[in-house]
Automatic annotation (TrEMBL):
This is NAD-dependent epimerase/dehydratase domain-containing protein. It comes from the Eukaryota. It holds the Pfam family Epimerase. Belongs to the avfA family.
Length: 377
């Protein structure tokens, strides 16, 4: 089974979809972090080698080299195979002691077929979904469960951290509360695709992820993604601001946008009571269409958000472990009222099913909405 993130300084990451528009940016951002060892599963090793060559020689035409440079041999492993092959994924996870799985594969199709299998909300139908995105996520979950069976003692340290990509329409429609967008209670929440049924190949993903007993997942749900070169503004900062969903706050004007993230609902959503009052359920549809253009982000935005979050979590794990070791060495027993207020409360991995965590920019078992806003000085 994958080892704990706290067990060593290097983070072992398995990346699926490394040759795609988003996956290649995640791949490049991961390689920029010396603390990360990357394993990729790709259909074509040649295509992966071309991406590597173009990354190392951006001003030259790719010559299709046979292998990555020696400087990457320690940090990178390339496995040729199919991301829907759960047996292959399980073998790679065992051999590479994978701690974090990032799935950016299978998102090229913009519209899925509208068969009952690909749009069903039911748990059984979600498992049987015939679209590629759902098959890859299903294979990832099956691999994690398969690896978990081989572990004699199931502990929090043997769980896998997972990052998956969905779409903005998986997020819930917010409600207005004191001039701010607010998430509805779970029993009353309805996803945006309930009102605007597009990109339905994403719909089964949450049910599949929730079926795993050994995965701490985050489902990142961006809207339209474009290359950074298409943006008029200067490159954004890579830091995300968790929990900022104030739709009325005014940010300072700076040339670099900051990525704002919230759980379950789109951040900084504008609720239109006038539209909500329209009959026949047309109001939410119009509200979604009015809000959606503001949520365009770059592929680089999303890649940096995911990789920064992985590294940040790893740092929190290490810091907490070091504090625990110091306390054990000193044989110090503290009461709850004596605890350091800045200490990370509890383990980020290995929680009960359905439990969530959103402090310190860490989201467990959550859907995440993103928006690029003017940066803050």
């Amino acid at each position: 089974m994958a080892t704990s993130l706290t067990s060593k300084s290097t983070i072992n990451v398995l990346l699926l979809g490394a040759t795609g528009s988003l996956g290649s940016r995640i791949f490049g951002t991961l390689l920029e972090r010396p603390s990360v060892d990357v394993t990729v599963v790709v259909r074509s090793r040649d295509k992966m080698n071309r991406i590597l060559y173009n990354r190392q020689h951006p001003s030259r035409q790719a010559l299709d080299p046979a292998s990555p440079s020696s400087s990457l041999e320690r940090q990178l492993s390339i496995i040729e195979g199919d991301a829907t092959d759960s047996d292959l994924l399980a073998r790679v996870m065992r051999e590479k002691s994978i701690q974090v799985l990032v799935n950016a594969a299978g998102h090229a199709p913009m519209f899925a077929g509208r068969s009952s299998h690909s749009v069903s909300d039911g748990k059984d139908m979600a498992f049987g979904s015939d679209n590629e995105v759902a098959r890859i996520v299903r294979a990832s979950v099956d691999a994690i469960e398969d690896v978990a069976k081989s572990v004699e003692v199931d502990t929090a340290e043997t769980r896998v951290r997972g990052w998956f990509i969905g779409g903005m329409l998986l997020l819930d429609l917010p409600e207005s509360h004191g001039g701010r967008a607010k998430q509805l209670a779970p029993e009353k929440a309805h996803s945006l695709d309930t009102y605007l049924p597009l990109y339905l190949h994403h719909r089964p993903l949450e049910s599949i992820l929730r079926s795993s007993k050994h995965l701490d997942w985050t489902l990142v749900c961006p809207a339209k993604m474009i290359p950074r070169t298409q943006q008029r503004s200067k490159p954004p900062t890579s830091s995300a601001v968790p929990g900022d969903d104030n739709a009325t706050s005014v940010a300072r004007r700076t040339p670099s946008p900051t990525l704002v993230a919230t759980a379950d609902v789109p951040p900084r959503w504008t609720v239109w009571p006038v539209l909500r009052a329209l009959p026949w359920g047309i109001g939410p549809v119009l509200e979604i269409m009015v809000n959606s253009p503001r949520y365009t982000v770059t592929f680089e935005h999303v890649a940096e958000f995911i990789v920064d979050s992985i590294v940040r979590e790893h740092g929190l794990y290490q810091e907490r472990e070091q504090k625990q070791e110091q306390e054990q060495d000193q044989d110090v027993s503290r009461n709850d009222h004596e605890r350091d207020p800045h200490e990370v409360p509890g383990s980020v991995v290995g929680r009960e099913e359905g439990e969530r965590r959103e402090d310190e920019g860490v989201w467990i078992n959550s859907k995440i909405g993103l928006i690029a806003c003017p940066g803050r000085a």
